[in-house]
Design a protein that fits this description.
- Helices cover 52% and strands 7% of the residues.
- It has helices at 32-53, 56-105, 107-110, and strands at residues 118-122, 128-132.
- The protein is mainly alpha-helical.
- A two-stranded antiparallel sheet has the order 1-2.
- Strand 1 (118-122) and strand 2 (128-132) form a beta hairpin.
- The chain has 3 helices and 2 strands.
- The protein has a domain at 32-107.
- Residues 1-23, 105-147 are annotated as: Disordered.
- Residues 11-23, 108-147 have a biased composition (Low complexity).
């Protein structure tokens, strides 16, 4: 078993509280008689902690946890680098391509005079809809030939 942990007690049990003692939230000064059991509890906790940390099981678990942490840290690092490369590559290569595809698919961008070729008409619901008129004027009726 490990040697007991030597720590300084929180307050001397025989000393009277001084004005420089820490104040608790309600404004009262910490009593030295209340600090003695706290110091004993702190010392007992440190003894238990030292005893647990000196066991082989603790060191085994600690080594495994450290190796898992190291592996996960490496995976996260590689994942961040891959995400950065993919993100910047898509911005440089894919976004302009999508912009050009969108430009080709937009029929209004091809003919700037398309707004003058359409005329509004009223639908049955009372809203105005735009219909496209044919580019060529209708031809005159052909005389029918009778035999």
């Amino acid at each position: 078993m490990a040697a007991p942990h030597k720590s300084k007690p929180l307050a001397d049990a025989t000393a009277a509280p001084s004005p420089s003692d820490a104040a608790v939230p309600n404004g009262s000064i910490v009593d030295a008689s209340a600090a003695a059991p706290l110091a004993a509890l702190q010392e007992a906790w440190l003894d238990v902690k030292d005893a647990v940390q000196d066991t082989a099981a603790y060191h085994s678990i600690s080594a495994k946890a450290h190796s898992i942490y190291s592996a996960l840290s490496a995976v996260v690092h590689v994942t961040k680098r891959v995400a950065w490369v993919l993100g910047t590559s898509s911005l440089v290569l894919v976004v302009p391509l999508l912009y050009e595809i969108d430009k080709e698919m937009d029929p209004v961008a091809d003919t700037p005079s398309s707004a003058t070729d359409s005329s509004p008409s009223t639908t049955s619901a009372g809203t105005t809809a735009v219909t496209s008129q044919p580019d060529a004027a209708p031809s005159a009726p052909q005389p029918s030939s009778t035999s």
